[in-house]
Design a protein that fits this description.
By secondary structure, the protein is of the alpha+beta class. Helices cover 30% and strands 46% of the residues. Residues 17-130 form the Activator of Hsp90 ATPase homologue 1/2-like C-terminal domain.
Amino acid sequence: MNEAATRSVIVEREIPFPPEKIWRALTQPHLIEEWLMKNNFKPVVDHRFSLNAEWGGVDCQVRMVEPNRTLSYSWDTKDLESVVTWTLTPRGTGTHLRMEQVGFRTDQEPYYRGATVGWKRNFTALEQLLSRID
């Protein structure tokens, strides 16, 4: 992947929950399904997993796991090869949550636009889930 010729989608939010709670929602398959997609995720480096929705699926592989701090995985679908990285930074009584998806080529405008809208929607669903779980 030529990083110089790619764009990123970045979403950042201050979330009023500790990193440990957010980490659970990012790494437990039954919780991931509630805010993102059906999956067979395991927070283990090199684990290959799939995300599945009515529109199709995404093939992924875990690249980095630093519990309660950083999670990164490849996100490959059709001709899009990208990487999603979550960063959790404790702030006061909450967490600064940052998600960056890197790898949108300049000729992949529909994917880029879809991810820009989709990740904001996913963040909202994630925050709603966090409000419901212990």
